[in-house]
Specification:
4 copies of one chain form a homotetramer. By secondary structure, chain A is of the alpha/beta class. The first copy, chain A, contains 13 helices and 14 strands. Chain A is globular.
Chain lengths: 396, 396, 396, 396
């Protein structure tokens, strides 16, 4: 029966039944005239989530890693310099990808728990009088540490520095769960995926490209076919696709966007903040600390929680699996064994989150962590009560 | 998102994804030779759950009420006397059904919270020297009060009284969640349904009939067609069905039985006891009392919980729905407004139960019930910890 | 792979993927306020298909046989006389059901292949000066013979005869595939099911009851609970259900009605006529005859086809199954071995029908039937071409 | 209703219900220990279909195009020379991909309708004394022309020429429908996909790499991350995946392999030959010709059929869609307007194929093609009769 329990990992997220059904489609011919009925609403809905007037929304049958690779291979060339901050495993992976593709990466190293530092980025750009930096690449939500970076605060100094480098943002683990404002923030390319805030199966990278981002493709010299923006845009303009499209994920995305729209994006964001805040209250009651170094950096999709000294977080997450059948995120990279993570995004509610917190408490008590079961989750319950807005009406 | 929350009503129960898939079948011809591939394993599995050598397992496309009607209209005649205990809404409904069908019902009235009293049944049978009582009808698990009756203790005095009346048992809300032993307990007809312990959609009554039960059909004089045992048994013997069969529920039952068998019936019963006991520990910590009047009567599938004086339990369950999107069972009949119920059976685990308990606590706190959030569910967590057996391996 | 082939039996019918998804619902509480969101649209849609102002639409978790039993046990009493025509297995079954329930059935025997004879019904009613006949029961579409009876032509003489008997119609295998007009035709109770024209799984009887039909319930003296109209109507008025409802079928029905409405009922009927006519052209080309004795009796949902002398139709249908994996309807009752049947209703198109015809031709050729493969199905193709209206746009 | 019709395009293919269910999985953690339960059987099954001892089976969340890109970017470097035959749109696309990635492609141009010519390949290799040709890339089944190339006959002269170039084969539209023998044929890398013979949704490229193929990765200098064999193999060895895996497609593949194994691969191939031959008999009866220039080149998965002069094949396929709701493949590249294609692979049976042939006949007759409906599909029926092996038993 334990396979009925919820997941509290940092993605992929629980898939609601409605989206499982939406993805369960019979195959259709993507040359047939009704293919656009699938694609156009998905594109239109994605534009609203990104809050942008950009018209180039690209769906690649790939993971988020594939999305990143598409972003850089279409806009940069071997030897180009890029500016990136490293504050966790996922920003580090992106740096690795850039280096493997022959880019010269100017890395701003940060403590794990800090966000991408706007001041250091500004300084680097100001110092780059020769405009050698061809792009700034930022991870909005560092999934390994539960830290969000403030994209708007990064764009402002880029503008002040009158630097022409475009801004690329990885919002894989934040989009559709935390606010994003592509145009207002001056983002030129954003990369997301199907399996996080959109609550779908894995397998589709979602890219949105501004005109500036698109202009950059002209000088890109990398060989590319599968991820080629030009092929994808040309096919899109013809109402088609350059190869066999991921139709079930496109159908799922169309429905996911309808769900998000029905709930209201503002309410979706508020629900995520509320679940995250409930988790944080419990963490505080446990006497534990988040990896994130300051409250304004707290991610609303995943919390990385430092273990007390002398306790191995891997044993804790393993015990939760084998003892209670519940999956939590493990500590990654330098946090391995030192932190565990609770994913609290996608298709979840406050009462589901309580199930995860109560489980974690039992697992900790079993392993003689310095927590008492008496009342530990109570702060989460208390917060959920005071912030409750009611569900109004049950879903049909 | 609240439609993703779990149900804690007294049935129907949450349907696991595996069984939703099993029921999602394309239609087949029930005259075709592969119909028996569907039916035979379902019958074989049901026999194991009932623990019987009886060979007549009948599947009617009907609710549990239909199953009851089938039991009496095939074995009794207008004017026949039957002996029944009334200790809640569901036993009362069965009495009403018998009376509407023209049976003379000798009712043993019990306090709500008590079980069917073996001593009074024995007395009634002993007093019935003329063997006028044609059947004894008992509800194993009274869903309205969360009370289980001990069937074995009822059969013994029937035998002592050397009374020939057969014993019919309603195990709709207990079968496949609490132990049942048809042959050992001397049950002649048992009635169950698809939507409770079998975790399926509603719509199929499951009857099992001993030879004695079958013999009784010979003198039954009621007009009947849809529920006629004779038609059903004749068709079954021919590998067919007397009318269009509920194929999706039969396919679902086959898979449900596989799931129960994989987990092991003994473990299934232990899991239900454990979940129920966790709920009872929390109830005790809340300072509340169960409707069930003694520990050996506690049901492992549903707990009916008396509200403190001055608090309307209907407001509580409504608040849980509208405030947190979680459904609990309401008080029925004379318990309306005075008790609420927590269903804890079918496709549930300990950590899911904690989600329900935590929700109920929040709802009670919101309505100024005399409970403090600090530590109330902790006894459930404590019990789940000490009784934990581990899940061994995650399901694939 | 043969389980991917279509069914050409006389029901249940192929379930389209959209309806399989619609029926695949997580369980909900039928006491919860959103139950009516499921039920009201289903009732509203059914009213349109029956073309009636009757407000009592009753959904029983039962087969069509259960629906018949509900119709008579709620409106008649033991010893009542009813007038019925027998022209095939299904009308015969209804007669048997009435007799087993103690009704005195005045049977008008007809040749298999004829419809219920309006003139004989008129004569019987005219002769019944004492108004002893309490109801006239007609099967609109005799599934065993592929014969439709003209309900309007039967009601007219009933009115002329100024006879007060209500008219009950079994439209199980015709509703939602062939026109029905409850009010215009003066039908008082109509019985249908989920698994034919509505293209759903088996398991729900659908009854619609006029005020006259309802008035008849007052004097009905049969014991009844499961099928009791009074309980069902009382519960319906309270937005509830007298016992656990068949929620997945109600959800499926809601979607089925949406599909029928999107296609347009008139077009649905035209599609069925067209598929049936295509089959009839092929039958004629084969040199075979329909069981139905005249063109105005031809059913648009199922065709019963007489085999040439000396050929056993059971061998033919068996060969189609074992040789090609395609199921056709067998001859029933006195047509056993003498006729086979092709169901052509529900979720089917012209090109699917051609697949069935082509298969039947191969099976006949294999068994040395006097047909030549050259051109036999061509008349069906020709008819489909000339009657083609185009699909306009592919479904999304 | 037309969305219920079958597809006769050249892939993606109809997805059987069993595989739609298999792909409909709740998300799981791919770091959890049960991930290997999903992956290992899929890998084991794939090995049987490829008939190889190679141990490196790589699943990329990508289309077939992505699979091709992975094959070359992991084994070759900019400026490397490769030998390829061009005999249709898909081999041409692969050439284009190689050229865009900076490879020097020595193209052997063939008539569309011819296969990759073993003699010319042998000559080219023999002439390449300096072993400048780093790989030979062949498309086993050219989907645009319905032509199969004989891989064994190509490998033999490669060996005779004692040339060390490895052999890469695109078997996207042939694997699991027509025989493949990786080791026997000396194939070093083979590329397939989820959406053709495996009858799954689109979105997963399947690569199998021999030791020789793997050795080639050592000198490959292309930047790569998403498609990097090294990352994938390292993760695979750890029972994990380098990024979020396409779990639903892996679950679907496991079940697809079970289906293929239950039917038996030999029977699967025989079924495809039989369906293809039925189509070819009908084409011959229509008086039309295949694009494929000789019988031993006929593909068993797709037939490309030349239109009579003066008739636009695009109008024909459009008419089939809008007139009858059935999708056929259009002519591609230089066959645009001159040929149409019938896909006959995956989840199809003989009687389904007849539905497609009968539809095509009607469409042709509507457009005044020189075909008479009388008996045109009859040869297909005749062939299906004589080659019938029976289905034995219906699937449960």
């Amino acid at each position: 029966m334990s396979d009925q329990n919820l997941l509290f990992i940092s993605g992929p997220t629980n898939i609601p039944g409605r989206l499982r059904q939406a993805m369960d489609v019979q195959i259709r011919d993507y040359w047939a005239p009704d293919f656009v009925d699938l694609k156009l609403p998905a594109q239109a809905g994605v534009i609203e989530v990104f809050v942008t007037d950009s018209v180039h929304i690209l769906f690649f049958p790939a993971s988020g890693t594939g999305g990143w690779e598409a972003a850089i291979t279409n806009t940069l060339s071997v030897g180009d310099k890029v500016l990136m901050a490293r504050n966790g495993v996922f920003s580090d992976r992106w740096i690795d990808l850039c280096q493997r593709h022959g880019l010269e990466v100017q890395v701003i190293d940060c403590a794990w728990g800090d966000s991408a530092p706007a001041d250091k980025i500004e300084a680097a750009l100001t110092a780059d009088a020769g405009q050698q930096i061809k792009a700034v690449l930022i991870t909005q939500n560092e999934t390994a540490t539960g830290v969000r970076s403030d994209i708007a605060s990064i764009r402002d100094p880029m503008d002040s520095a009158t630097h022409s480098a475009p801004l690329f943002v990885d919002c894989v683990s934040s989009l559709a769960s935390m606010p994003f404002a592509m145009d207002e923030w001056g983002v030129n390319i954003a990369v997301a995926g199907s399996q996080k805030g959109f609550m779908l199966a894995t397998g589709m990278a979602i890219l949105i490209v501004s005109q500036t981002g698109l202009d950059a493709t002209k000088q890109a010299s990398w060989p590319r076919t599968f991820f080629d923006f030009r092929d994808m845009i040309r096919a899109t303009d013809e109402g088609c696709y350059p190869y066999t499209p991921p139709m079930n994920l496109m159908a799922g995305l169309r429905e996911s966007l309808t769900m998000l729209s029905e709930e209201g994006l503002g309410i979706v964001y508020a629900r995520h903040f509320r679940m995250a805040e409930g988790v944080r209250r419990a963490v505080s009651a446990w006497g534990f600390e988040l990896v994130a170094s300051a409250p304004d950096l707290y991610s609303d999709t995943v919390s990385a929680i430092l273990n007390p000294r002398g306790f191995d977080s891997n044993l804790l997450t393993q015990h939760a699996v084998y003892g209670y059948g519940v999956l939590f995120g493990v500590g990654l990279g330098e946090l391995k064994g030192k932190a565990f993570r609770i994913g609290h995004f996608g298709s979840l509610t406050d009462v589901m989150v309580l199930s995860g917190l109560a489980t974690m408490e039992m697992a900790m008590a079993d392993l003689d962590y310095p927590v008492e079961l008496e009342g530990v989750a109570a702060p989460a319950q208390g917060y959920f009560r005071e912030s409750r807005i009611g569900v109004g009406r049950l879903a049909a």
